TrEMBL record:
Catalyzes the 2-beta-hydroxylation of several biologically active gibberellins, leading to the homeostatic regulation of their endogenous level. Catabolism of gibberellins (GAs) plays a central role in plant development. Converts GA9/GA20 to GA51/GA29 and GA4/GA1 to GA34/GA8. Residues 176-285 form the Fe2OG dioxygenase domain. Keywords: Dioxygenase, Iron, Metal-binding, Oxidoreductase. It catalyses: gibberellin A1 + 2-oxoglutarate + O2 = gibberellin A8 + succinate + CO2. The keyword Metal-binding applies. GO terms for molecular function: gibberellin 2-beta-dioxygenase activity; metal ion binding. Pathway: Plant hormone biosynthesis; gibberellin biosynthesis; Hormone biosynthesis. Its cofactor is Fe cation. It comes from Pyrus x bretschneideri (Chinese white pear). The lineage of its organism: Eukaryota, Viridiplantae, Streptophyta, Embryophyta, Tracheophyta. It comes from the Eukaryota. Belongs to the iron/ascorbate-dependent oxidoreductase family. GA2OX subfamily. SUPFAM superfamilies: Clavaminate synthase-like (SSF51197). InterPro entries: DIOX_N, IPNS-like_FE2OG_OXY, IPNS-like_sf, Iron_ascorbate_oxido_reductase, Oxoglu/Fe-dep_dioxygenase_dom. This is gibberellin 2beta-dioxygenase.
Length: 337
């Protein structure tokens, strides 16, 4: 894939040297969706990490490989062609600039609606005669991943022992669900390939952040780069697995569980040698949906940690912030002095 832009140093940043980065971590929670203990393992993982890996997920590998192939075709186009699908507002093609608040990374991406019928003709024209193939691959993948995600959310409800069991999944199944889908490409960086140290070849591909939605589902090729932050502030490298999915607890789910589940802070380091392609489904509620801690999750004397807000209000606030900001800070209840 070709990625032609200005000098590297003008665009991206390096990992903070003051941040401890742990060696490759083998303890990522693993959940097999076919096992009877999956519901409790999901709850445990959400409480401890806000992150876990899913195997035996039921998503056909053909759907995964087809969409990755279509993504590679798009990212292999000349930059001038890809830019016809941008700039992102917020949907569309983006190159290095992430949002409108100054965040940059060594990444190019497509941010799309999950409703393939609503994808603009301006975007599809870039694909020419292959537009139908792209939409078909996208629709098959999103449909299968959405089904899996709803199953995971219902297992969460089972593990939390709350009713109805679709209390989370119904927000994604709603026709007005404000979910979105992202394809990311972290290309090799020519200016870093001559460096001898592996750590020196890493730069920020996508800066540290939490996801504002309820849940996000990530799948990538076998190139490493994803890291999650633990509670002690250390960064853990997540071993890639192109046959599995990784699940992030989002800010909205943190609020719905009154902080029992914590959204995971994560980032991606771009490698100077290998191309990384990832695809992420972000499960969001309808814009008008009120987000507040569920009484069924809280103990009798437990107080709400968050003010009630609509998804529209939180989304607007999140898009107005920098990636690394504590986006939920504005919605926390301040304890009386």
């Amino acid at each position: 894939m070709v990625f032609v832009t200005k000098s590297t140093s003008e665009h991206f940043s390096y990992p903070r040297t003051s941040t401890k980065v742990s060696k490759l971590f083998s303890g990522i929670p693993l959940v097999d969706l076919t096992k009877p203990d999956s519901k409790q393992l999901i709850v445990n993982a959400c409480e401890e990490y806000g992150f876990f890996k899913i195997i035996n997920h039921g998503v056909p590998m053909d759907f995964i490989t087809r969409l990755e192939s279509e993504a590679i075709k798009f990212f292999s186009l000349p930059l001038s062609e890809k830019e016809k699908s941008g700039p992102p507002n917020p949907l569309g093609y983006g190159n290095k600039h992430i949002g409108k608040n100054g965040d940059v990374g060594w990444v190019e991406y497509l941010l799309l609606t999950t409703n393939t019928e609503s994808i603009s003709q301006r975007f599809l024209s870039v694909f020419g005669n292959n537009a139908e193939e792209f939409c078909s691959a996208l629709n098959d993948y999103i449909s299968a991943v959405k089904k899996m995600t709803c199953e995971i959310l219902e297992l969460m409800s089972d593990g939390l022992k709350i009713q109805p069991r679709n209390v989370f999944s119904k927000l994604l199944m709603d026709e007005q669900s404000d979910s979105c889908f992202r394809l990311n490409h972290y290309p090799p960086c020519p200016e870093l390939q001559g460096l001898s140290s592996a750590s020196a070849r890493n730069v920020i591909g996508f800066g540290e952040h939490t996801d504002p939605q309820i849940i996000s589902v990530l799948r990538s090729n076998n190139t490493s780069g994803l890291q999650i932050s633990l509670r002690d502030g250390s960064w853990i490298s997540v071993p890639p697995d192109q046959n599995s999915f990784f699940i992030n607890v989002g800010d909205s789910l943190q609020v719905l569980t009154n902080g029992r589940f914590e959204s995971v802070r994560h980032r991606v380091l771009a490698n100077g040698l290998k191309s990384r392609v990832s695809m992420i489904y972000f499960g969001g509620p309808p814009l008008s949906e009120k987000i507040a801690p569920l009484q069924s999750v809280m103990n009798a004397e437990e107080e709400s940690m968050y003010k009630e807000f609509t998804w529209f209000e939180y989304k607007k606030s999140a898009y107005s912030s920098r990636l690394a900001d504590n986006r939920l800070g504005h919605f926390e209840r301040i304890a009386a002095a």
